[in-house]
């Protein structure tokens, strides 16, 4: 039975309250002429007349900062100066946003067809010929001998990490197409992952998990992560997540080096794992744990899965791949495939779905939409090669395909976000900006116990429980902590600390605990009985003659 399981770390002991990471989920000929639009369309700009002011109008869509009404009533000169400076900064920020609005792209590009033309029939050569020069310079095609290759991008899309199964590891700068490092570890490499930035990246090798720097120098050997098959990284929690041959899900905080949580799924080897970026919950797919959610997705082994917003795609060896709604955990669409099962499934930033079948790659647009899409958006084939992995380049309309003998690039219009937030991920950041962002992200790091599947328990949500219930829960937590607190043994003399006395004292403490639990159960049973009686009386109605019912039963008996 194919199962996909998602795990959310809810508690450190157990991407939070004691990290409880698991959501377990017992879990598809046109003509030569075509019109291909350019990658991104600029918003038309009207030149201002001489009489009109060159300053942008006040009716822009930017949210303005709240203005301070008046500073006349403030007697504190220091506070008044700070508020005046803050107001100037807010006005300057709003002015800059308005002036740069004209430089933003209105929407992502795409493919436009005419008549009976189909987008999936347009070959890559025609698409590349019509794209802009900047996109053509970013297309990468490498014929490498140590495949098949696993690929991964950094968060800003500038660096590409390649891992060949026969031991080759390479880190490339996508702007210059020059390798930053290239090493051969001379053993099996199953997966690679860039961590918070390109200065640290991880490789799942034959037995252990290793961490390297941008020069290829080994920094750490994590012997707790044995026989790792898949890795992922939670950027807002600084957690490296791994799963492998023994089915053990491990969360490691790379900022401290400590293990935040480890969970034994008890479902055998796991070769399929992805995170949900919206809540940092891990989704696992394997043959056979305390999961948060468990779904039967396929009648065979799960081969790949990925998550985008509230939707999840899964594929199995049963001849189908499905789109799931994570709000209801029910399938939206099911598609049939022929031939090899999908080896990799990936969502882009805009919701473009890429699937690798044997030597074929398919791209689906709005795969979750209603009605169900009938044909793919784009297709591409690699004759004589097998697709091993897929990765969309952030903020670009490019998809890197890891093959059995190298890597290749497919141009997928409308797969990348046109406008990006430089404070979140900046492809053009300098070394000083990178160091500054790294410090800020460490200071703003979220704790593992904040990962949760239930959105009602998120930070900032209102607790609807009554005050009495909250007080009772707090009292219960305090009592549990007091019981768990270890008492220091006293060193007694003259035979008072013999083995018999210690055993007798332990038995006495155990009996006291049992009596306390029994009394608590009896009290709870009485309270439940009283509540049921009150509810029954409320339903049937109570009269003054009901007091004689028990006496009548007793007299007849």
From TrEMBL:
Annotated region (Disordered), positions in chain: 1-66, 473-505, 522-557
Compartment(s) where it occurs, according to its Swiss-Prot or TrEMBL record: Nucleus, Nucleolus
InterPro entries found in the cross-reference section: BING4_C_dom, WD40/YVTN_repeat-like_dom_sf, WD40_repeat_CS, WD40_repeat_dom_sf, WD40_rpt, WDR46/Utp7
Skewed-composition ranges (Polar residues): 1-18
Keyword field: Nucleus, Repeat, rRNA processing, WD repeat
GO CC terms of this entry: 90S preribosome; small-subunit processome
Family matches, as SUPFAM superfamilies: WD40 repeat-like
Protein name in the entry: WD domain, G-beta repeat-containing protein,putative
